[in-house]
Amino acid sequence: MAMNIVLIYPEIPQNTGNIARTCAATGAELHLIEPLGFSLSDRYLKRAGLDYWGLMRYHVYPDLESFLRQMPENARMFFATTKAPQRYDQVQYRDGDYLFFGQETRGLPENLLQKRYEDCIRIPMREEARSLNLSNSVAIVLYEALRQNDFPGLLSKGSLTGREENEGAWLDYV
Description:
The chain is α/β, with parallel strands linked by helices. The chain has a single domain, classed as Alpha/beta knot.
């Protein structure tokens, strides 16, 4: 199983491309709920996701009802919103959870939030700030869920490559 990222009516192709890259790097599945504010062949979408689209699984649904009908009966869902009663890190995530995010200009539909208010989560921020960027929000919540589950299937350590680098003046400051 994998974590599931659900984008309801995303509008900005660069955000969705960045989210696709995050899903590819983490093994999360991406679910896109139409209408989309862009074409999936959009060059900005492809540029933001680079060559990662082939490394991840994504699905497109014609509407929210179609998506909800195909979900497993016991699926756990969490809804990211600035209107939530609890922080995103106060939830115990499990492999296979569905993390919902709304469109960039409006967020998630409030009638959906009302039905599942106990499952709404918030990323803390200053009162004066309306919201965070969608792709940043997805990364923050997804990585918390993965951290809680000990980053299943992900490499935890890297290594230096040994490649030759040009000396730079900035090295004098390190």
